[in-house]
Amino acid sequence: MANSGRVLITGATGKVGSALLDNLANDDIELRALAHDESEAKSLEGRGVEAVLGDFLEPESLRPALEGVDTMFLLTPIHPQQVHQATNVIEAARGSGNDPRILRLSVHQASHQSPTRISRQHAEIEDTLAASGLPYTLLRPQSFMQNTLMAAPTVASEDRIYQPMKEGRLGMIDARDIGEAAAKVITEEGHEGKTYTLTGPAAISFHDIAGALSEVLGKEVTYIPVPLEKAKEAMLSRGIPEWMADALNEYAKAHSEGYSDWTTDDFERLTGHSATSYKEFASDFERVFRGG
């Protein structure tokens, strides 16, 4: 996907999108981002990015964002209507007259047979993209290390992590690494039609995560496995919608049964260096885990 020209980034204020902007900032690329409201637009413009308002569920609003776009980074949020949202964007891209190249952020093991609804959604979106006739590349990352920041309050106050993962291991990856990999695909030749499954350097359990945090924080952090039902109760009490809580618990159950106990070297092949380890990640976010 070289000769990037004008690049449209969706999800530009999120963990991956923001990291992608950081990695493209010094390239000779005309950056544009889809913003969902004025506040988001102002934040993006403050980073020197052209912001265009649009809504995934309102196809007509997407046309101005796609005008003159050569490459699009397509990230859609976890949502019951994610398939509809992504389909609207793909159809708008098809109708733009530009035939933009699409770099789609999917998920690892996107499959119609997946035990998780989110992965099944992504499989359907991948099918739609493949049928669109547009050139595309797929990034399929494992779980984000940043997800563990949700445990920061109990790490800071109780020296504990509560998760429903049992002894499961995950090849989780730093979202900043995903942004770096995405930038490579956008700015280099030879990636069209390819799928890259991105993981960290090792499959780790929450016991391993607690161990890394113990080293970084200089205190003993303990992982406490909890039942799925308790995890759902905790999520609902924090205002997480039930659909989302159930979807995340599907992942937790799958992770605890070995679904994500593996890694690949795709990140290293794309970037020429190893992915961030969890201890490195924990060091970078030490202040957060200390409650700051």
How would you explain this protein's 3D organization?
Helices cover 42% and strands 15% of the residues. With 292 residues, it is α/β, with parallel strands linked by helices. It has two domains: 6-142 and 174-198, Rossmann fold (3-Layer(aba) Sandwich); 146-170 and 201-261 and 276-289, UDP-galactose 4-epimerase, domain 1 (Alpha-Beta Complex), CATH 3.90.25.10. A seven-stranded parallel β-sheet has the order 3-2-1-4-5-6-9, with helices on both faces. A two-stranded parallel ribbon has the order 7-11. It starts with 5 loop residues before the first strand and ends with a helix. The relative contact order is 0.14. The model has no long low-confidence stretch (mean pLDDT 97).
- First-last Cα distance: 40 Å
| Whole-number mean pLDDT | 97
Number of strands: 11
Number of helices: 13
> Which architecture name of the largest domain does CATH use?
3-Layer(aba) Sandwich
